C-alpha cells in the first residue's frame, strides 16, 4: 500500500496569454503530491483551482511548464499519453456514438492488436464488472446516463491500467444515481486494487469515497490528508470553510505557557490547552469549530470531567431541520455562531427560543487553531 504510484514534484503549468494585453495564467503552481498504489486519491477544490490541469498533466495531455511527473518511479515528462500506464474517464464519457458498447470497450485493445479471442473475453469480463453483461450490442444513445458512465468506466478498465484518472465522472448524473454510483465505484476500486485519482468539486463525494484528499485553491495544494483530518483538523481557513460548515472565533492570547493559554475569545476570558506552544501573549488567533461540536445550555453546566469552554450569548434564530435544529447565537463580542443540536430525546424541540439568553459550550479539543 505504501508503494508510490504517481508523484508530482514541484509541478507548475502556465498557460500563455491569448493577447498581449492579458497576463499569463498560472493554472497550477509548485504542486507536489505522492499518491500511493491502490489509493483512492481525490483532488478537491472550487471551479478553476487547477484540478483538471493536474489530472491532464498526469495523463500526459498537458506538459508541465516546470517540475517532474513520475508514474511507478519512472519520469514521464516526455512520455506520450498512450504510452503511460494510465487511463482517463471523462465527465462527458466521450463514447464513440457510431460504435456499440462492446466495440467502444474493445477499441483500445484493437489499437494494440490484441487477439480477437482475448478482446471478446476481456470485454465480457469488464461488462460484467460494471453490471452491464447484456448490453454489449446497444449504441450509446440507447443507454441511460448511468449506463453510459459505466461503459466509459469499462472502456478504461479493460486496459487494466495501473492508475485510473477520473475527471468528475459522476457530474452528469442526477443525485440519486450519483450516490449509487459513488458506492459502486468505491467498491470496484477496492476490489480491483487500482489507484484512482479522482477529480471533484463535491466535498461530500470526496469525504465519502477517498482514502486521502488534496484540497486545492488558486492552483495550489493547501492540505493533503485523510477525510477525517480534512474535516476535523483543517489547517487553513480555506479548507475549514470549503468543507462543511464552520464557525470562526477570533481570540487574543493573554498569557502563554507550554500547556495552557488564557485568551479572550468572543469577548470572554477562557483557557485553551494547546498541543504546541505556538502562541505568545498578545497574538491574535482564529479558532475554527464545527456547528455540531457546540452545545446550548440554559446555564453554565457543572464540570463533568471534560475540558470545555463556555461562552454567553443570545439566540437570534432557531430553525428546525429534521434531524437537527440549527441555532444562530450572538456572542458577547457580537460574533455569531451556528449551533447544530441533534433532535434526540435530550433536546426538546423549541427549548431555546429566539431572544433567550444561553450558554454555548464546546470541548476544547474541538477548537482548531488556523494558520492564515
Ligand atoms: N488550455 C488552457 N488555456 C488557457 N487556460 C486554461 C487552459 N486550461 C485551463 N486553463 C485555466 O487554468 C485554470 C485551472 O483550470 P482547471 O480546468 O484545471 O480547473 P478545475 O479546478 O478543473 O476547474 P473545474 O472544476 O471548473 O473543471 C483556470 O483558470 C482555467 O481557465
From TrEMBL:
Q: Which residue ranges does the record assign to the ABC transporter domain?
A: 6-243
Nucleotide-binding as a keyword?
A: yes
- Source domain of life is Bacteria
GO cellular component terms, alphabetically, are: ATP-binding cassette (ABC) transporter complex
Renumbered to this chain, the signal peptide range is none
Catalytic activity from the UniProt record? ATP + H2O + polyamine-[polyamine-binding protein]Side 1 = ADP + phosphate + polyamineSide 2 + [polyamine-binding protein]Side 1
- Spell out the family assignment given in the record's similarity comment: Belongs to the ABC transporter superfamily. Spermidine/putrescine importer (TC 3.A.1.11.1) family.
Spell out the subunit comment.
The complex is composed of two ATP-binding proteins (PotA), two transmembrane proteins (PotB and PotC) and a solute-binding protein (PotD).
Known function: Part of the ABC transporter complex PotABCD involved in spermidine/putrescine import. Responsible for energy coupling to the transport system.
Specify the protein name: Spermidine/putrescine import ATP-binding protein PotA
Name the species this protein comes from. Answer: Ornatilinea apprima
Amino acid at each position: 500500500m505504501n508503494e508510490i504510484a504517481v508523484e508530482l514534484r514541484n509541478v507548475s503549468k502556465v498557460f500563455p496569454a491569448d493577447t498581449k494585453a492579458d497576463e499569463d495564467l498560472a493554472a497550477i503552481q509548485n504542486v507536489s503530491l505522492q499518491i500511493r498504489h491502490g489509493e483512492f486519491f481525490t483532488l478537491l477544490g472550487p471551479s478553476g483551482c487547477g484540478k483538471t490541469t493536474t489530472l491532464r498533466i498526469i495523463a500526459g495531455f498537458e506538459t508541465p511548464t516546470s517540475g517532474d511527473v513520475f508514474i511507478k518511479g519512472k519520469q514521464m515528462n516526455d512520455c506520450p499519453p498512450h504510452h503511460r500506464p494510465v487511463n482517463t474517464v471523462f465527465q462527458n464519457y466521450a463514447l464513440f456514438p457510431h460504435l456499440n458498447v462492446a466495440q467502444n470497450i474493445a477499441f483500445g485493445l484493437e489499437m494494440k492488436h490484441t487477439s480477437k479471442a482475448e478482446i471478446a473475453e476481456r470485454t465480457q469480463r469488464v461488462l460484467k464488472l460494471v453490471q452491464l453483461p447484456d448490453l454489449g450490442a446497444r449504441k450509446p444513445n440507447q443507454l441511460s446516463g448511468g449506463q453510459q458512465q459505466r461503459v466509459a468506466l469499462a472502456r478504461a478498465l479493460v486496459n487494466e491500467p495501473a492508475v485510473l484518472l477520473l475527471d468528475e465522472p459522476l457530474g452528469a448524473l442526477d443525485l440519486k444515481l450519483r450516490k449509487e454510483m459513488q458506492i459502486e465505484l468505491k467498491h470496484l476500486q477496492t476490489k480491483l486494487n487500482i489507484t484512482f485519482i479522482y477529480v471533484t468539486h463535491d466535498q461530500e463525494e470526496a469525504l465519502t469515497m477517498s482514502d486521502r484528499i488534496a484540497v486545492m485553491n488558486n492552483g495550489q495544494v493547501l492540505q493533503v490528508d485523510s477525510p477525517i483530518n480534512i474535516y476535523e483538523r483543517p489547517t487553513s481557513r480555506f479548507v475549514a470553510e470549503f468543507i462543511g460548515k464552520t464557525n470562526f472565533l477570533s481570540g487574543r492570547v493573554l498569557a502563554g505557557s507550554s500547556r495552557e493559554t488564557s485568551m479572550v475569545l468572543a469577548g470572554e476570558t477562557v483557557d485553551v490547552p494547546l498541543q504546541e506552544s505556538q502562541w505568545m501573549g498578545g497574538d491574535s488567533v482564529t479558532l475554527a469549530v464545527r456547528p455540531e461540536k457546540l452545545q446550548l445550555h440554559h446555564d453554565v453546566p457543572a464540570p463533568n470531567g471534560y475540558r470545555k469552554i463556555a461562552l454567553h450569548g443570545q439566540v437570534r434564530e432557531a430553525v428546525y431541520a429534521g434531524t437537527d435544529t440549527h441555532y444562530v447565537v450572538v456572542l458577547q463580542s457580537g460574533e455569531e455562531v451556528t449551533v447544530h443540536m441533534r433532535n434526540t430525546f435530550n433536546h426538546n424541540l423549541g427549548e431555546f427560543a429566539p431572544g433567550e439568553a444561553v450558554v454555548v459550550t464546546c470541548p476544547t479539543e474541538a477548537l482548531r487553531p488556523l494558520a492564515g
